[in-house]
TrEMBL record:
Belongs to the enoyl-CoA hydratase/isomerase family. Pfam families: ECH_1. CDD domains: crotonase-like. PANTHER family: (7AS)-7A-METHYL-1,5-DIOXO-2,3,5,6,7,7A-HEXAHYDRO-1H-INDENE-CARBOXYL-COA HYDROLASE, ENOYL-COA HYDRATASE-RELATED. This is Enoyl-CoA hydratase-related protein. It comes from the Bacteria.
């Protein structure tokens, strides 16, 4: 079983524990503020994960005791000209898109502040596990910008258009209990337990067919903006991907033989 750790730049690491990967944000001095270099490292790490067929689930975590991620590095932004800001925009999009487009199920383990781009990183994951210290929100309009890491599109898909509009227009911060009640996070756990619970959930997910997991995620994500008829065709394509796979044959055999499956991953 693979137990390894790889660094990407100064502030991002990927830890592997068998089929579960942990994408670690470790820019402690800046509460994981997303600078250009930090975003480049996230994008690079996500590209490596996306190309690793052995990863069945990924957990996005933070080493900072008081923050998941506070969003864009506004100190760096303050030094950039308009031309420089525009030139760096594709690199910023690559960081958030890298998380969003990971092909395996993803879980954000959130504690402390997850604001602006930080909450957008969490929204880019399939599931969000939070502890009671979590504070989430998209406050971008309060500093004269808009959510630019996917927030205007991901939040309404999670909580509905009107709720998303209220949260984005008001720029308000939402504490853990209300965030859970509103569906801004999926699971609320005990203090300091977000990482452990997210990794445990990832382990349960990773016990399932890698072919099935990736096909199911692809169907869920692709069908988001479609009408029912088109979405069902997406599901049909996913079904055909898995129906004639080695994983399907192994899953059926293991069920009938009353044993744990040994997934071939093809």
């Amino acid at each position: 079983m693979d137990h390894s750790e790889q660094a990407f730049g100064e502030w991002v690491r990927v830890r592997r524990d068998g089929p579960v990967a942990e994408l670690v944000m470790d820019r402690k001095g800046a509460m994981n503020a997303v600078s250009t270099a930090f975003g480049d490292a996230l994008a690079e790490a996500c590209a490596a994960l996306a190309g690793d067929d052995g990863v069945r689930a990924t957990v996005l975590t933070s080493t900072h005791e008081r923050a998941f991620c506070v969003g864009a590095d506004l100190k760096e932004r303050n030094t950039l000209s308009d031309a420089e800001l525009g030139a760096r925009r594709p690199r910023s999009r690559a960081a958030y898109g890298g998380v969003l487009e990971l092909p395996m199920p993803t879980i954000a383990a959130v504690h402390g502040f997850a604001l602006g781009g930080g909450y957008e990183l969490a929204l880019s994951c399939d599931l969000i596990v939070a502890d009671p210290t979590a504070v989430v929100g998209l406050p971008e309009v309060s500093v004269g910008v808009v959510p630019g890491g996917g927030g205007t599109q991901l939040l309404p898909r999670r909580v509905g258009a009107a709720r998303a509009a209220e949260l984005i227009f008001s720029a308000r911060r939402v504490e853990a209990a209300e965030a859970h009640a509103l569906g801004l996070v999926d699971q609320l756990v005990g203090p300091g337990e977000d990482r452990a619970e997210a990794l445990a959930l990832a382990g349960r997910i990773a016990a399932n067919s890698p072919v099935g997991l990736r096909a199911a995620k692809r169907a869920l994500r692709t069908g988001w903006g479609m009408d029912l008829r088109a979405g069902l065709e997406v599901e049909e394509a996913a079904w055909r991907t898995v129906a004639f796979s080695g994983d399907r044959a192994e899953g059926v055999a293991a069920f009938n033989e009353k044993r744990a499956p040994r997934w071939p991953g093809v």
